[in-house]
Every structure is written in structure tokens, then in C-alpha cells.
Design goal:
heterodimer; A: mainly alpha; ABC transporter involved in vitamin B12 uptake, BtuC; two-stranded antiparallel ribbon; 76% helix; B: alpha/beta; Rossmann fold; Heat Shock Protein 90; 6-stranded mixed sheet; 5-stranded mixed sheet; 17 helices; 17 strands; 20% strand; elongated
Chain lengths: 356, 532
């Protein structure tokens, strides 16, 4: 039997370790801890990468900083950012949505087809958005309620959506879209500082609103807590299933928004548009610091990631590399970021073990 | 009064295993109901069902007049549940974890769009944690750095963030030190004072006795008994959790031994768990009271058990001595008297001439001889005369021969020739066991031949085997049930074996018939006291 008065040999050293660690982290939570933990470093890396790419491209090409190119860049950045925000939220709750590219194509197509069939612009756009929301809801229901792996569900969903999109028009694109609709993707709004592309305005507004909700409201803290504390949320009476379904639905809705903006920009809705776009979207979220293990990520990070991804896409063409290289370079960067994230987690794990 | 919670026929199976079976439960406002049961009795499953986390296979649950469908959010209904395993969001700080799912602040509709009021939450959390007496470094501390005890306290604090109508508690005591356990008990009483109902599942009967109004005993997923706390005592509840009440009334010694071994086992388990906890917590200031209490309990139990065994042994030895005295009395007095009567009759007969009377006297003499034979028989059973003079082997041989002649069942006796003399108590016990075994065979087995075997399995152990070729044991044979029906023979065998420190097993022989095996440790004669 245990000697009741025996001292545990572990106790002293361990409390000391806790003391030391917590003194370091707790008293100065914002500055010190942020920089010490790698999630801060990851954001730093994203900022650094952004300026690096920007600098290289401005110095090595003449056309990068031209007004025309920047305007194009801003526009294509917008829908990537919008879709990546949705993807980022899904990644933060520990899931993934591979069907966003197909959702973009399908909802753009449905919006375009409705207009072709004579529906006014606004209801047609709503139809497109509704399509995206329904697809997101279905994905979320399968993942959250039936507990299927998100990877498989959204992969299947991607194939189904492409199939539906192609069979809707027999493979043809929908053209001759009405003028007011085209304004959405191609137009500018003049604000005090100058004229701003409409898609960029939409993207930044969305980012601001969603970012505020994520930081300031309970739903935001639930989303961050989801991946590691799902059991705790359940026993605390939080409807975790509903929250997951909501996040997937939001992701589908944002993808639809991106798809409609893309169709409006191109002036046509093609069933084969945005093929492989999910790679860019996931890369943007991950490069921007969203952890594929869940629980980590931010809207400003996702915006940074989207900007980096889009600059690389644009810059590689300007530098004269064949466009085949784009995906390879972006994916390499994404894998490096995931590796960094892995090291961060390892570091935290060691910390948990020595302290907890 | 209308019940707050009513469960009807809740059942949950996992494969072929029944976790909860047909559970009915009624809970009124302001009532504290305890659920007692050993580890694995299904307490946590019941709590999971009532908390809406686990869906039952059948049954219904009515809370405040509303029928619930699973899965439901207990919290929305006004139930607070404290689980056995505290669940935390590791990256969230103390305040966040305390108010998880119940954040304070201004809302733009629903919980999701609520903007948490950090300052108010911090103040509230500090107040609650102070009330619990929990020490912490900072409210900004992440849950990752908490000890198990602190986690459990946070989980308890969660239940205190707002006034609940029903609090369900699933034995958080394992993680808590003694002082916090007492704190929890006073919290439970506080909840009742505010009109809430409390359901408290625990395997600590003392805690249940301290606070509850009513105790339900759960055993293998079934509610086996329900007591009003003021009309019962902890022994009865303990017995009900083990399921030992029937044996308790019949044979205290077996029950005592059984619960003694169980208690020892539990104590070992507890000590292990304690050791684990201590390692995990690593806090030297953790109070030793539980451990000391445990040691005390064990000591008391040990002493009680030794006394009990001693008493039983004395009783048996008194019994044997009384039998011996009775046998001597009958032999020396009654039989001698009868023999004298016989001689006098003989004398009388020789002095008489008349035919009719002579015949009558003949009959009387024959009767007297029969009575003497019977009495000798009885004396032999009361106290085998051969055992005192010739030892166990001869006594068994002669008894078996005699028995075989009376019953017509063939008996073969094999006694290890190197057996030697054993302590008197052992020899007598073995003899009695054989006696009982053979009488059972005669009554129940309908056998034609029997075999008795007594041998050494090692230098310190004896094995006695009594086998027959009869119909064997009936299906579903259960020792406890037979003794409940009033057949004590087998129980007696069991008892004698247990008192000698051995064991006894009764089973069917694969080749047909029943097989009784008794193994007894024995010491050489000179080392044992020979009083018995």
C-alpha cells in the first residue's frame, strides 16, 4: 500500500516547471505569448511572404505595378478571398470543403441560366446563392449529422456538382448575360479615395463583417473551440451539429458568391469554370495561417493568403513561366506552411507535456 | 406534487450487453435522490441518458410536463449536468470554460450573436471559484495547464453559473480531495434549499447517506432496490449494490468472507487509483485524509473478519464436543441400560415355562437388540469412533462401507497411504464433508456407484474428490438459490472449506454425474493447536 505521507518525487520539479512557464506566458499574454507561440510566427511569415513576393514582382517586371494589372489582380483576388474566407471557417472547425470550385461553377451557371430564361438579375443572383447554400447545407449535414469524413463527402459533392453543371447546358457555356449583371464583376464604385472595383468592395465588406462576428461574438468562440473542445461544447449544451452545418452552409454560400462574381467578370457562365480552384482556395487559407488541425486561423490571415496566392498566379505569368507552374508553386508553398504548422503543434505538445 | 422528472422504461443495450434495463424514475422538485452502485453498474449511462447525450433504445422521459426527444440540450431545459470526466476547451481560459455555453452579455438574438461581457464574466467566475475555494493563478490561464482536480472544479463551477431546476451529478468525487468532496455535498444541499432537484450518482455510500432523501440502488443496469435514506443504513445499501442480501440473512460467515474479499479488492483498486491520481496531480498539499480513512476501514474490516471467523470456529468445535458428549452419554448410559434390560429379559425367559409369554419376550428382546443397533449407528454418526483411534482413512472406509450396505450404492474409497494423521479439526471436517456429500448423492443423484478420493496435491495441500455417476447437477444450478430454498448441506461444505482456508467447487463431470472437489491447506499436526 501507498505510504500516505510519502512525497511524490515528481511533484516539486513539475510545479516549478509550471511556474516558470506560466510566469512567462500569463503575465504578458498578448505580446510575449503571441510571439512565442508559432501561430503568431505564422502570421508574421505570411506578412513577410506578402512583401517579399510583392517586392520581387515589382522589381523584376515592368507590368506588375501597372494600373491595368493591379485592377485585374484586385478583381481576381476578390473572389478568391471570398471563397477562401468560407474555406477558412471550415478549416478552423477541423473540416475541409473540396467542392468549392464546383459550387462556384454550378451556382454561376444557375444564376446565368435563370437570367437566360428571363428572370430579372436580382432574383437570378439569389437563385445562384441559394444553390450554393443548399449544397453547403447538404455537405454539412452529411459531415455533422451522419459523421462522414468531410474529405469524402465534399469530394463526392464536387463530382456530382460538376456532373449536374455539365448536363444542365450539355457542356455549353451560358453567354449574353444582361448588362447590369456584368457590372457586378466588371464595374467600379467611386469612393472618396478613388474608384474601387465592385468585387473588391464586396470582399472587404464580407471580410470585415465575418471577422467581427468571429472575434466578438459567442459563435466565433464556439467555432474556434470546435476542433479541440467538441465534447466540452456538447456537455455545455451547445448544439454542435447545428453549428457545423451552419459553417458548411456559409462556406457554400460564399463559394456561390465567388462563382457569380467570376461569371459576371468573364461575361459567361461555364460549367467547366474554376476547375481545380479548390486547390488555390485551400492554399490561400492555409498560407494565411489556418491550421488543418483546426482551431487556428483568422480572417486577416486568409486575406493575406489569398493575396499571396493571387500575386503568385499573376506574377508567374508576368515573369514568363508557363501557367502550368502556377499550381505546382502554390502547392509547394502550401505544403511548407503545413509543415510549419506541424512544427508549431509539436512545440505546443512538448509544452503541454512539460506543464500539464 | 407534480414530478419534475419522470423516466419510464429506459433501456439501452450495447450488442448483447444490457447497459440499462427498464429503468423507472420519478424526481420531485426539492428532492435529492442518490443512485448507488458499484463501478460498472450503469450509473454513468443513466446520467448520459438523462442528460440527453445518449439516446436510449426504448423508454420515455418527461421533464416538467414535457416529453423529451433525444438528443436534447439539457441546459436549455434548465438541467445542469456534472459529468464524471470534466470536459474542457483546452485553449480557452478559466472564465471562458466556466461560462462555456452560458456566456453573459448583450445579445442580438439567440446565443450565437451574443457579445460576451468579459468583465462581468470575470467577476462572476472569480466569485464562483472563490465560493468553491479553488486556487488558481489567473482567470486568463488556459485549461491545458489545469490539474484534474481543477478541471473537475471548473466543471462544477459551470453548474453554478445560473440557477438550475435539476442538477445531475455523476460522481465527480474521484478527482476531488476530501475537502472539495465535502464542499460538493454542501453545494448539493444548497441547490435543494433553492428548490432545485438533485440527482446524485456515486459509489460512495457515505456521501449518499449524508445528503440524499432517497437512494436507488443500481446493479447491472437495473434498479434493484430503493430506500428512503432515513429508514435504511449503509450496510443494507452496500449489500444491495453487491447483490448479497439473500446470503447475508442465511449464512453470515459466507457473506462476511465474500464482502471481506470484495472490500479488500476494492481497497486495492482504490489505493491504485489514488496512486495514479497522486502522480497525475503531483501536489503534495493534497490531503491524506481519504488514504488514512481507507487504512482505518481496512483495519476495522480485518479485525471484524478475524473475530467472526474465530467465533464460527468456536461454534463448530463446541458442536463437535457436544456431539462427542452426547455419543458418550448414549453409549455409556442408554445402551448399557438397554443391554441390562436385555439380560434381565433373558433371565426372565429362562425362568418361565409358558409358551405364549416366551414368544412375547423373544419379540421384546429382538426389539431391544434393534434399538441398541440403531443407537450404535447414531453414536457412530455423532462421533465416528474409528476416527479417534484409527485415523481418517479407516473412518472413511468404515463409514463408506456402512453407508453402501444401507443404501445399496457401491462406494470406492481411495485414501493416500502416505496421508498420516492430520489435525483433528481437519480430519473431522473432511469426514463431515464426505458425510454430507454422500447424503446428497443418496437424496438427489440417483447414482449406482460413487468414488471418494483423498490425496495430497502438494506437501501442504489436500484434495478431496467425491464423484458419482448419477444425473449430475440440474441446469442453472446456483448455490445461493439452493440455500435460499432451505437446503444448507452444500453451504455447510462450503463453510467448512472456507474456515479451513480452502475452497470448494461443485460441477458436472464431463463423463456424467456430479463432481465435488474440496481443496484444503494443511499443516503438520504438531504446528496446529489440537483443541478442536
Amino acid at each position: 500500500m501507498l505510504d500516505p505521507r510519502g512525497e511524490s518525487p515528481l511533484s516539486d520539479g513539475r510545479t516549478e516547471a509550471i511556474d516558470r512557464f506560466e510566469d512567462a506566458t500569463l503575465d504578458r499574454p498578448h505580446l510575449f505569448r503571441r510571439w512565442l507561440s508559432f501561430s503568431g510566427i505564422q502570421l508574421f511569415v505570411a506578412v513577410f511572404l506578402f512583401f517579399l513576393v510583392f517586392l520581387i514582382l515589382s522589381l523584376s517586371t515592368d507590368s506588375f505595378l501597372s494600373g491595368q494589372n493591379l485592377a485585374n489582380l484586385f478583381r481576381s483576388f476578390s473572389w478568391l478571398a471570398i471563397v477562401a474566407i468560407g474555406q477558412g471557417l471550415v478549416i478552423i472547425i477541423g473540416g475541409i470543403d473540396l467542392s468549392v470550385g464546383a459550387t462556384m461553377a454550378l451556382s454561376g451557371l444557375i444564376a446565368g441560366r435563370s437570367m437566360q430564361l428571363g428572370l430579372p438579375v436580382v432574383p437570378a443572383i439569389l437563385c445562384g446563392l441559394l444553390t450554393g447554400a443548399i449544397i453547403g447545407w447538404l455537405n454539412g449535414t452529411l459531415v455533422a449529422r451522419f459523421r462522414l469524413p468531410a474529405f469524402v463527402v465534399t469530394l463526392g459533392s464536387m463530382g456530382i456538382q460538376r456532373g449536374i453543371a455539365f448536363s444542365l447546358t450539355g457542356g455549353w457555356s451560358v453567354t449574353n448575360l444582361p448588362e447590369p449583371f456584368l457590372h457586378l464583376g466588371q464595374g467600379n464604385v467611386s469612393l472618396g479615395i478613388g474608384s474601387v472595383p465592385v468585387p473588391l468592395l464586396i470582399a472587404l465588406t464580407l471580410a470585415l463583417v465575418i471577422g467581427l462576428f468571429l472575434r466578438r461574438t459567442v459563435i466565433g468562440s464556439d467555432i474556434y473551440a470546435m476542433s479541440s473542445g467538441e465534447r466540452a461544447l456538447v456537455v455545455s449544451g451547445v448544439n454542435v451539429t447545428r453549428l457545423k452545418v451552419f459553417v458548411y452552409t456559409l462556406c457554400g454560400l460564399l463559394a456561390a458568391m465567388g462563382g457569380i462574381l467570376l461569371a459576371s467578370r468573364l461575361g459567361l457562365a461555364a460549367p467547366g469554370s474554376a476547375v481545380g480552384y479548390e486547390v488555390d482556395v485551400v492554399a490561400a487559407a492555409v498560407i494565411g495561417g489556418a491550421s488543418l488541425f483546426g482551431g487556428v486561423g483568422s480572417i486577416r490571415g486568409v486575406l493575406l493568403g489569398a493575396a499571396i496566392t493571387q500575386m503568385l498566379n499573376n506574377g508567374l505569368v508576368l515573369l514568363g513561366y508557363p501557367s502550368y507552374w502556377q499550381t505546382a508553386v502554390i502547392c509547394t508553398l502550401m505544403l511548407l506552411t503545413v509543415l510549419l504548422d506541424y512544427w508549431r503543434r509539436q512545440g505546443e505538445m512538448v509544452r503541454y507535456e512539460t506543464s500539464a | 406534487m407534480k414530478p419534475l422528472l419522470e423516466a419510464r422504461g429506459l433501456s439501452l443495450r450495447f450488442g448483447s450487453l444490457s447497459l440499462v434495463q427498464d429503468l423507472d424514475m420519478v424526481l420531485h422538485p426539492g428532492e435529492i435522490v442518490g443512485i448507488a452502485g458499484q463501478c460498472g453498474a450503469g450509473k454513468s449511462v443513466v446520467v448520459a441518458l438523462l442528460a440527453g447525450v445518449q439516446q436510449p433504445d426504448s423508454g420515455e422521459l418527461i421533464f416538467a410536463g414535457r416529453r423529451l426527444t433525444w438528443p436534447f440540450s439539457a441546459r436549455e431545459l434548465g438541467m445542469e449536468v456534472i459529468h464524471q470526466q470534466p470536459e474542457m476547451v483546452e485553449e480557452l481560459d478559466l472564465t471562458g470554460n466556466v461560462f462555456l455555453g452560458n456566456e453573459l452579455g448583450r445579445s442580438f438574438g439567440g446565443r450565437w450573436l451574443r457579445i460576451p461581457d468579459r468583465r462581468r464574466m470575470d467577476a462572476e467566475a472569480a466569485r464562483i471559484l472563490n465560493e468553491l475555494g479553488m486556487s488558481y493563478r489567473s482567470l486568463r490561464q488556459c485549461a491545458v495547464h489545469l490539474t484534474s482536480e481543477q478541471r473537475q472544479l471548473i466543471a462544477i463551477a459551470r453548474a453554478m453559473t445560473h440557477r438550475a431546476r435539476l442538477v445531475i451529478i455523476d460522481d465527480p468525487g474521484l478527482m476531488l480531495s476530501y475537502a472539495y468532496q465535502q464542499k460538493l455535498l454542501s453545494l448539493i444541499q444548497g441547490w435543494r434549499a433553492h428548490g432545485a432537484a438533485v440527482l446524485y450518482a456515486s459509489d460512495n455510500v457515505d456521501h449518499l447517506m449524508a445528503v440524499t432523501d432517497r437512494i436507488m440502488v443500481l446493479r447491472r443496469g437495473q434498479c434493484t432496490a430503493e430506500y428512503a435514506t432515513k429508514d435504511t443504513d449503509r450496510e443494507r445499501i452496500l449489500a444491495a449494490t453487491i447483490g448479497a442480501s439473500a446470503q447475508q440473512e442465511l449464512t453470515p460467515i459466507i457473506w462476511a468472507l465474500d464482502s471481506y474479499y470484495r472490500a479488500r479488492e476494492q481497497a486495492e483498486k482504490l489505493a491504485n487509483r489514488r496512486k495514479l491520481l497522486e502522480h497525475e496531480l503531483g501536489t503534495p498539499e493534497l490531503d491524506r485524509q481519504i488514504l488514512d480513512q481507507l487504512a482505518d476501514h481496512l483495519n476495522v474490516l480485518d479485525r471484524a473478519n478475524v473475530a467472526l471467523q474465530e467465533a464460527q470456529r468456536r461454534l463448530l468445535s463446541e458442536l463437535e464436543r457436544e456431539r462427542k458428549r452426547l455419543a458418550r452419554e448414549i453409549h455409556d448410559q442408554v445402551i448399557q441400560d438397554l443391554l441390562a434390560v436385555g439380560y434381565r429379559l433373558e433371565e426372565l425367559q429362562s425362568g418361565l415355562e409358558q409358551g405364549a409369554a416366551e414368544e412375547e419376550i423373544q419379540n421384546v428382546r429382538a426389539d431391544v437388540r434393534m434399538v441398541v443397533d440403531d443407537l450404535r449407528q447414531i453414536c457412530g454418526t455423532l462421533r465416528p469412533p474409528t476416527i479417534d483411534s484409527f485415523g481418517l482413512g479407516s473412518a472413511l472406509q468404515s463409514f463408506a462401507h456402512d453407508w453402501s450396505r444401507r443404501t445399496g450404492i457401491a462406494v470406492k474409497v481411495f485414501v493416500d497411504p502416505n496421508l498420516g494423521r492430520l489435525p483433528e479439526s481437519t480430519e473431522l471436517s473432511i469426514f463431515r464433508i464426505v458425510q454430507e456429500g454422500l447424503s446428497n448423492i443418496r437424496k438427489h443423484a440417483s447414482a449406482t456407484s460413487t468414488e471418494i478420493q483423498l490425496s495430497r496435491t502438494s506437501s501442504r495441500r489436500l484434495l478431496l474428490v467425491v464423484a458419482d455417476n448419477g444425473q449430475g447437477l440440474p441446469e442453472g444450478f446456483d448455490l445461493a438459490r439452493t440455500s435460499a430454498d432451505g437446503h444448507y448441506g452444500l453451504l455447510g461444505i462450503n463453510e467448512r472449506a472456507a474456515l479451513l482456508g480452502g475452497w470448494c467447487r461443485l460441477r458436472n463431470n464431463p463423463e456424467g454425474g456430479a463432481l465435488l472437489q474440496v481443496e484444503i491447506p494443511h499443516l503438520p499436526v504438531d504446528q496446529t493447536d489440537l483443541t478442536l
